[in-house]
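debug: dumping io for the single-chain case to check the tokenizer round-trip. Nothing else runs in this session.
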Amino acid sequence: MQVRISELSTRTGVPVATIKYYLREGVLPAGERTSATQAVYGEHHVERLALVRALVEVAGVSVAGVKELTAVLDAGQPLGEVFGVAQRLVSAGGQPATEESSARVVQLTSGDSQPVSDVGAAMAARALDGFAAGDRVPSETWLRTYWEAAQLVARADLEEVGRRPGTTERVRLVAVGTSMGDVLLAGLRRVAQAQLTRTQLTRTQPEEES
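debug: decoded output
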């Protein structure tokens, strides 16, 4: 497939002006020159624009962040390295967590060693600080259950990634899946809470006082 920039815009839904901006920023590789002022673009450009749109519009990554990720991708770095950059870019920032919460996350997820994902560990530790601020520190049983559930979801994530063809499509799924997967999981958790609460309250409804 070889198309001009106007056709590339039509096919991808990305405005011509935006495509030109991505070209200037180096996020989108240059097309094949057919003259001093004209170029044609191929399927690789369609795939790259789909990745960029997912990062910017769905995951909320800045153009600078997209440029960082695509540079690692284009350099042919190992897939694990690319995934690590993608996870970091789409994960929430925030203030540093307390040493106590950080240590608790390390102990929960890695024993005495450092967690594989510094980004994830920092997010979890900040959540524990939030619990502590509300005087509601989670029990070890509750945390252990969350960790087991997280491992189950992570395995499902990797299995889904493995079903996708090509590195770009896999990175795209990681980028979107990390941000939207958080939303999906939170929504399903609330549905499950509502169902279980309704069932348990119905089953254990106390008798009305006479």
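debug: round-trip ok. The longest helix spans residues 167-203.
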